[in-house]
Amino acid sequence: MDYIINNAYVVDPINKISGEIRDIFVSNGRITDEEPKGAEVIDAGGCLTLPGGIDSHTHICGTKVNFGRYMSPEDMRAGRAPRRKGMRAVSGYSIPTTYGNSYRYALMGYTTLTEGAMAPLEARHTHEEFKHTPLQDGLILTLFDGDWGLMRAVASGDIKRAAALIAWRLDAVKGYGVKLTNPLGAEMWSWGKNVECIRKPIPDFDLSPAEYIKGVIEANEMLGLPHSVHLHCNNLGKPGNYTCTIGTMGLVPDLNEKRQTCYLTHVQFHSYGGTGWNDFCSKSEPVANTVNLRPQITIDMGQVMFGRTTTMTADGPMEFNLYRLHQDKWSNHDVELETASGVIPVIYRRKNLVNSIMWAIGLELALQVKNPWQCLLTTDNPNGAPFVKYPEIIGLLMSKEYRDREFATVHPKTGTRVILPSLDREMTFEEIAVMTRAGQARALGLIDRGKGHLGLGAEGDIAIYPIKPDKIDPSKQYAEIIRGFAQTKYTMKLGVMISKEDEIVADNQNRTFWCSPKVPEAYDMSKDPDLIRTFDRYYSIRMENYAVDEDYYLTKSMKIETETTL
Amino acid sequence: MRRITLILREEVDPYLPIEAESICPETLSKRVDVTVFVGNEEKKLKDVFDIRVDGEAAGPAATEIILVGDCHQVKRVGEYMTDGKIIVDGDVGMHCGDFMNGGTIEILGNAGDWLGREMLDGKIICHGNAGNYCGSGYRGGRKGVRGGEIFVAGNVGDYCAECLFGGVIHVKGDAGIHAGSNMKGGKLLIEGDCLMPCGDMFAGEATVYGHVTDFLPTFKETGTIIEDGHHLTVFQGDVAHRNAKGTLRVGSFDRI
Known about the structure:
The complex is a heterodimer of chains A (566) and B (256).
Chain A: E1 3-12, E2 17-27, E3 30-32, E4 40-43, E5 48-51, E6 53-58, H1 63-71, H2 98-107, E7 110-118, H3 123-131, E8 137-143, H4 148-155, H5 159-173, E9 177-181, H6 185-189, H7 209-222, E10 229-232, H8 242-250, E11 262-264, E12 272-273, E13 281-282, H9 284-293, E14 297-300, E15 307-313, H10 316-326, E16 331-335, E17 339-348, H11 353-368, E18 375-376, H12 390-398, H13 400-407, H14 429-444, E19 462-464, H15 478-486, E20 490-493, E21 496-500, E22 503-504, E23 512-518, H16 529-538, H17 543-546, H18 550-553, E24 557-563
Parallel strand pairs in A: 1-4, 1-5, 6-7, 7-8, 8-9, 8-23, 9-10, 10-11, 11-14, 14-18, 23-24
Antiparallel strand pairs in A: 1-2, 2-3, 5-19, 12-13, 15-17, 16-17, 19-20, 20-21, 21-22
Helix pairs in contact in A: 4-5, 4-7, 5-7, 8-9, 9-11, 12-13, 12-15
Chain B: E1 2-8, E2 18-19, H1 25-28, E3 35-38, E4 41-44, H2 45-48, E5 49-54, E6 63-68, E7 74-75, E8 85-89, E9 101-107, E10 121-126, E11 149-152, E12 168-171, E13 184-190, E14 194-195, E15 203-215, E16 220-227, E17 230-237, E18 246-255
Parallel strand pairs in B: 1-6, 2-7, 6-8, 8-9, 9-10, 10-11, 11-12, 12-13, 13-15, 14-15, 15-18
Antiparallel strand pairs in B: 1-5, 2-3, 3-4, 16-17, 17-18
């Protein structure tokens, strides 16, 4: 079906359109400038029209998410909705069923999702769940934080071999990019320990996190991957960790002109000052200033919102510390030779000083990073909050009045530990469009594939919100902004209407994007004797059984072949 | 006063579960023309039960429902009830009195699993035995029963009073394994024996007059008392949990 969208108030930062009333033509899934014949006409009536939303860091599929579901049966009692025409029954709030995720994202206008961390050995499960996330395109970042082969290659200074290993594994597990979670921490966690910041080498490998991060960034650029290294820094959630974060930012060279060279995720959890929980405070200012000085870095907020949620990360030691803090149910898991993970349900409370400061830090980061292309809107779903809180975060960013009102309800001592009340910035619709679409598309290297914009030839991912930007003052009418961003009038993906008002009207639209770098014959790791020996000796699975079968596991495979400089 | 007598029809297949949350004074005080699910089929209440209505009701408080017959497959009787009375002349199925907020349920026979799950207030009297999870929370929940009173004259199954938060649970007979685990308040009294009670107890009072098999090592002995002629040893715990404030009194025990 082709579409003509009339009277759309278009905000499209990539094509430098900010608030023009214009018509959009969608034909064969793409945006064209010719009026298609026999097309269905939709009257947008001057409503805010944006490219389809992109989430550059979320946890919606895979063993970790599923384990969160096992251990929190109480979560499944929230967010229940019965089956409706064309929609399945769904349940769950912070870790809903895959269909629940997909429907809620679609209603918010999101069409592309990035699963933030996949253990390579558990890739099959992740792909199976993506298969049942019917309305969004999937990108899956693959964990390399404790990969023995890669660690040995970087420790011996052989970056080309490191690049070849990344290429082989991405191709084998159908991953999109490289994720480093608490680099080398997973390896230390197998010994019951953790790494301290980035300079101290770990035993057995004689490699420090700093060397490892630099080596992997270099290897990533050699492979010409569309996304940069996706980095979750060391020392997550520890008071005083901002020095470590700034140190890590200092390691990042500027190697790519099209996008950032390193993407630091959920920086809110990495901008803490103080020496312990008693003098815990915000250090968002130095972190944001470092980002402002370094165009090669993009960060995302990892905003914390109050309420019940579930934390899940490949940062095993951090989850163990969190368990000791909360003394609630907890799970930790080791993935042989590759990575680790942990899952814990938490509740962020307004009455809690630490939680209130965390809430403020995320907003401070977004408001202090001058260039919205460098700070993207996420909650690290569901670690900071479930993604259904995005509209509230947009409201907070667009309205100082709303921020002040919310600030009055948090712990009374918060004011002495944060600088949020002194920040006056109120974001515009254009900046929000950058933080939720254009910036995300650039950070993930998806602009060339037609995502994140509405220019000629772009994919027909369109979200029309019931907000009339001409007639609304976001700084005052924030309640309408939140309502508007919570549910689109229409969401389209690749030219297919997927949701109309609060109804889902399509199924099976998902595709999986994955990268296969073209490496020279000499660097083909499938014949590498060392890697074969590793599988034979240490893995509980044969190398032949390791690779994910494309035909069976990927619903619609979108292979991206990249040119390498090996 | 309105009295509604429901007699289970003989032709109803005893192997099909009947989901009957509509058997509740709130609903039946207004009308008896309601539906229940038998297996996966929605049926009228009058197709499943013979109904007899006596008198007029001024509201749920003046309503009495009497269930007659072997209702062991009738589930969710009295769910969310706030007032009035239900008498079950026979057995009743799972989830009887869930989320109950007032009123009385009297069961002359045995009750199924999850009796009085997460109840807030009201009273349940069971003259026979109750199944597993009697007076508990649901899976994964942090707060179980928050108020009210459950009395079981017979035995109860496993996980009785799990996550107990308030209210009183009184068992005349024996309890199964893990009674009162995760207790956070309220009172639990077991007159018979039980197995490994009160693991990960946070607060509240639990008493076992009989013998505790495999008593947990994570309880700290603090003294002895005599209550109702029973010589009891008092423990504080569960010290595996940080800041545990629970009290557990047991008649006799053998440690793991």
